[in-house]
Amino acid sequence: MFDIYLPIAELSVNLLVILGMGGAVGFLSGMFGVGGGFLMTPLLIFLGIPPAVAVGTEANQIVASSVSGALAQWRRGNVDVKMGTILLIGGIIGAVIGVQLVKVLREIGQVDLIISLSYVTFLGIIGTLMLIESVRAIRRVRTGGPVSMRRPGQHNWVHGLPLKMRFKHSKLYISAIPPLVLGAFVGVLAAIMGVGGGFIMVPAMIYLLRMPTNVVVGTSLFQIIFVTAAVTVLHSVTNQTVDVLLALILMIGGVIGAQFGARAGQHLKGEQLRALLALMVLAVCLRLLFDLVVQPDELFSLGPAFGGH
Amino acid sequence: MIWRGIPILMMTFWLLAGPLSAQEPTEQIESDISSRNIAIESNFTGQRIVIFGTIENSEHSEFETSLYDIVVAIRGPKETIVIRKKSRIAGIWINADAYTYANVPGYYAVLSTRPLGEVANRTVLNAYGLGFNSLNLRPLGPNAPVAAADGSLNTFRAAVVRIRQDDGLFSYKPEGVTFVGRNLFRATIDLPANVPVGQYATDVYLLRNGTVLSHNRSQLKIQKQGFERFVYSAAFDHPLLYGIAAVIIAIFAGLMASVMTRRD
Question: Which of A1, A148, A226, B251 has its CA at a distance of 20 to 30 angstroms from the CA of residue B51?
């Protein structure tokens, strides 16, 4: 009854299921303050959406969620525009490389594998690190020990690089190379995985670039808007894998879910929230790994032939 | 002189043809489809079509109604596909061997009054392309002959048919055509939601004792309509504009969300 035909994915899905998924992931992203792309893309793949379409469409959805997030940060003055611009220049270069990579991988029939492998790798690492960190934090709170975070040192190898620039908002005087490279790396991930890349960007900004924590989230969201917008346009042009109808349904679900999630998040403790998120990340990782390792029922797969006219 | 000759010529033809057709009336098949145009819109979840028709000059009597066999074949637009087989490499299942097949029908359904093997022999079925075994599936490319030698080609060919069947795009209903009257028949087929768009041909064959007596073709067009068509053609014909529009929609949605958040 609520089935809806997706014009680009070329299959019929239940509208309520997609809305619900958008809402659930939106709820989590509102609660944890994360983008949610790294959960939504695998969920879309589990639902039967072709992985390349899931990635392209999810990038489109992240534009919407990061616009509203970045706007809220902007009002509080938490965006370092100069740093964000350097990051997004790198990000767009990375997006161009990533989209071409997806094109080549589609032609040789390995795109599904690389998307899954990227997810298993990154979700595994991030999930494990988050779990360790949050369990430690919970233990510290229980034993009543000091809740002091390890202060990052004043100088590291990043400060020895050339092309130094002054970032007033972040109170930094560092080389432009690390943010460019970081931006490019996250841009490639955005194009291949359909994620904003905040889960890489935020820790890297804190520990690698030594940016003050108050501007980290705003600046990350600021550059995510532009990078995911670039990824959306590039995937549309190169691979025709952006399904606007699917993206729109996800956006509606996501917006509603995020409202409730943000409220629910205020009543929960940070460490337990992070532990919960870590467990979910690891569950998605294991599910993807399972599909790669266990012998599939059908060893053969059909796909369209590219360029063979 | 010439004008006077024509009636005589016509008489001759009538005399020649008349007695012959009286002895052996040739059976003809007439058929049509319930819908010649199918529109894929946002509520499309597949569609049922009915192919129906009648046998002209039938020799079916009240008591004998199984002289003829009818086979219906629905063929979708041909496409070039790649089939890949996964192998275990370093502990994970990776696409390894691949073959490209040209001219694979995007949709292929065969319905008959009884199993094809009983309707006609292999030669006849192959000549008319009836049944999965009669599909001309041969791989393209330089690695194809090597595969043919070791016999693995058959497993690839079988996999193409099997996957298409699992997707609902290939089907075979050996009792899918039924007589509803002495000479009136009908066949029902459910097109799935993932049916490819394009020009389809619906062929109806009339057979008796393993030989095709008559053949009738109707065209069927499946196309995206309305919003679905608009989105699809925008994505493939104007991809840059499509991408920019997708971003603008997303930005607008984000701004809307942010307005909603601010209110409370």
Answer: A1
The whole-number mean pLDDT for each consecutive block of 10 residues of chain B, a chain of 264 residues, reads 54 50 70 90 89 85 75 94 91 90 92 93 92 86 57 83 94 92 90 92 93 92 90 94 96 88 60
Which residues does A96 contact at the CB level (< 8 Å), separation at least 6?
A187, A230, A234
Cα B183 from Cα B65, distance rounded (Å): 8
Which has the closest alpha carbon to A205: A192, A219, A193?
A: A219
The whole-chain average pLDDT of chain A stands at: 87
User: Of residues A154 and B237, which shows the higher confidence score?
Assistant: B237
| Record: contact B247-A113, CB cut-off 8 A | no
pLDDT higher than threshold 70 for residue A129: yes
- Which residues of chain B are within 8 Å of residue A300 when distances are taken between CB atoms? 83-86, 156, 159-160, 162-163
Half-sphere exposure of B71 (CA within 13 A, CB side): 28
What is the 8-class DSSP label of residue A265?
H
Chain B within 8 Å of A2 (Cβ-Cβ)? Answer: no
Q: Which residue of B has its CA nearest to A3?
A: B43
Q: Counting every residue, how long is chain B?
A: 264
Chain B residues with beta carbon closer than 8 angstroms to that of A232: 243, 246-247, 250
Chain-chain contact of B82 with A109 (C-beta, under 8 angstroms): yes
- What is the torsional sign of CA A3, A6, A10, A13? negative
B23 token code pair: 């002895």
Question: At B110, phi and psi to the nearest 5?
Answer: -125, 130
Q: Using DSSP, state whether A267 is helix, strand or coil.
A: coil
Residue type, A213: T
Do B42 and A4 lie within an 8 Å CB cutoff?
A: yes
Amino acid, res. A258: A
Instruction: Kindly report the nearest CA distance between residue B217 and chain A, in angstroms.
Output: 28
Helix (H, G, I), strand (E, B) or coil at B103: strand
A304, B254: Cβ pair inside 8 Å?
no
Q: Residue A174: exposed, middle, or buried by beta-carbon count in 10 A (0-12, 13-18, 19+)?
A: buried
Q: What is the ipTM of this complex?
A: 0.87
Question: In terms of DSSP bridges, do strands B108-112 and B170-173 run parallel, antiparallel, or are they unpaired?
Answer: parallel
B100 close contact with A: CB closer than 8 A: yes
- What is the pTM assigned to this prediction? 0.81
Q: Which of 84-113 (A) contact B at CB < 8 A?
A: 109-110, 113
Superfamily of domain B29-223: Macroglobulin (MG2) domain (2.60.40.1930)
Q: Taking CB atoms and an 8 Å limit, are A300 and B246 in contact across chains?
A: no
